Amino acid sequence: MTGRGAPQPFDWMTLLEYAEERVACRSQFMRRLVINRAYYAAFHVARGGLRDLGVVDADARFHRRLWRHFERAAGAAPGQARAWRMIGEIGNGLHAERTRADYESAATWSADDCARIVADARSLVDRVGALTAR
User: Fold this and answer.
1) Which DSSP string corresponds to 9-63?
2) Is residue 6 part of a domain?
3) Which of 18, 46, 79, 101 could bridge 35 with an S-S bond, Cβ 3.0-4.6 Å?
4) What CATH code is carried by the domain that includes residue 75?
5) pTM here?
């Protein structure tokens, strides 16, 4: 603590901005980092979106359970189930890529792969934003 007042909450969008700024990187090291950062931005925005929508899910801190919650559209308002399911689908895809990036040493990504993953993370974040703006 620096004595400068209450700490401000972390803005998870800075992770996505970091990934977007580095999406054209050439090294596999940086591509893995970009994928990881894009995923965690999407994960935390989606988790916060559930909270903002008044959905209480004690298991939402677990990745697969969070995406499953969206896939099942549990808590979706009438007419929003499709949007929820799409968030779950995109989230599962991002989770799979992040898991490969973090744990599979032989995995590689092209520049196009990396750009697609970051674009998917942006799409997910925008979709969550559209749900919570209503």
Assistant:
1) PP-THHHHHHHHHTTT--SHHHHHHHHHHHHHHHHHHHHHHHHHTT---TTTTSH
2) no
3) 101
4) 1.20.120
5) 0.90
